[in-house]
Amino acid sequence: MSTAELHTLTGAYALHALPDDERVAFERHLGVCGACAQEVRELSATAARLGLAVSAVPPPALRDRVLREITTVRQEAPSHARGSRPTASPGRTGRWSTYALAACVAAAAAFGGVAVWQNQVAQDARQEAARAQLHNERVAQVLTASDARTSASDLAGGARGTVVVSKSVNRAVFLASDMAPPPGGKVYQLWFNDEGTMRSAGLMNPSASDDTVLLDGPVDSASGMGITVEPTGGSEEPTSDPVALMDFQDA
């Protein structure tokens, strides 16, 4: 993908609408393009405000009003029956009206539950968008830092790993390309290398061959990072030989 094309992806990235390969390519581009990083921050903030603006909760009295009007508003006959008298036997009309009324009452009763469910879905979506926005901002902060240092290495199976470290932000970002999926029930775990002592730095997405991970915790005095294969959920300390070891580039 050309640099000119990458410049056009800021909006899609802010809305989390990029496929994994384009997302990873664009996040690498963020490390060298301050203009795109600034535009992503502004678009992400705007998207969050718009999401909050469209949320609406039905008024509490709406359900009661619907139930009241069921008893006073006559149901209109089907279009094919207008102008003709019903031929149903006595008592049948009243029975079907009862069924219709019961269905309307059930629908009205369910309406309150649907409204609550819709509001919960909207709230969950806003929270997820806020978490994603915060993650993107923190990743961009590392990638665009003036003291960001990048180290890259070929990994097993033709994969490629790149780590970007900013001492001023005190965080690191790991970008992986073409990672083979871990064995069933396993996950790739990242580690900070603190002079030979490995400190957990988070888990990779086991279903993504291309991934961008903001390493958990501060860099502090770590001189590099490692990757191991661990049981789902991760381990307190490495339990396998490292898949990769990468040194951080000195400032």
UniProtKB/TrEMBL annotation:
Membrane-topology annotation of the record: Single-pass membrane protein
Region (Disordered): 73-93, 228-251
Compartments (UniProt record): Cell membrane; Membrane
Annotated ranges, domain Anti-sigma K factor RskA C-terminal: 105-243
Residue ranges annotated for the Anti-sigma-K factor RskA N-terminal domain, each copy included: 6-43
PANTHER family assigned: ANTI-SIGMA-K FACTOR RSKA
Name this protein carries in UniProt: Regulator of SigK
